[in-house]
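Q: May I have one protein plus its fold?
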Amino acid sequence: MKLNFLIAIWATLFLSVSTHAASVRVTFDIGYESGLFSSKPDAEFRAKALKQAELEVWKVYQGRMDSSKISDVERHRAVIESRLNDFITNLEIIDESVDESNKRVKYTVRAQVNDTLVGSIIMQASGGAKPSGSGSVFAFLFVPRMQSETTEFDASVSKTAKVTAAKQVKSVSKDSVAEIEGGVSEKSVEGQEVKAGVNAKTSGDTTRKAQETSWVIVEAKGVNAEVNKVLTESGFESTSADDMFAADCAEAESSSQELVDDMMSRSNLTFTKKTSRMLSQTLRSCEAKFFGVGYMDIDSIQKDDQSGGWRVRVSVNVEVKDYSSKLPRTVATVQEASASIGVSQDSARDKALKDAGRRVAEIIVSQMRAKGLN
């Protein structure tokens, strides 16, 4: 009995982390006619509400899409929306309240949207997978990394003070006689009493030094395979930077590691002049038209209380350039963040990187398809 219980828990956890799904929660209301039901909606009305809920969930999900992917949806909306039941699952009513005065029923619902299936349906509607051998060569280098150390600096404050002396003059005139001990007196005293005060004003500024972060490269299992799959199905002839620099067409004494070392030494997606020239020469020698490069940063690893596993978030910053002309041109950019859950930190990290790799490849394809590039 105990073994069966543990197996059930494991199966539930496994299924929850294996599905590429987005959770969507939405609130909407529906009008009703007098006499349709007494105090609570009946089964027929709820069925109508759930049908409307699918459309509302779909609207919210579209709001999270990349703009180029939205363009694909707009071109094939009827086909895609005919399959809402396929990729919107686990639809449940969280709250239901009747407003009798306005004859409206307010619903709050939650559902899961299968990201992978949505992408597949959009791709099929846009022409499906294209035959290999006719597309442009697309090389890529996505560097997965995480912070090894972060140093924060205290603020330094510098102030300047300006001092102004103020003089106060008081006139004194005294005709009276003041008697003092011993019979000595003083009279007709006139003069000035001077008092000086100091007025100090200060102004200053605060200088904050940006924190310094050290990064280390982490192993990424399956990322290249996910990216290759999406690019290949979209008609590109894809290859990783490792494979490209290992080919006979690559420039002598060049390597993908040189690119990685250059990237890790800089804070943005730029290369030194020497590395840029080496990359351009290799891409042209190997007849690779497009090159995608970027970071996949693991910025959060947390315990997931709901599943009992680990939740890892990955932020992606990637750009793609066309090297077919003398001057490289940027044709796609992606800045996205996604999270995945695994039973251990390692499995969650691997899954998060794979999911992020697939998602970034899908966005790149959508952006390039919108521009007619293939």
Observations:
- DSSP finds eleven helices and 13 strands in the chain.
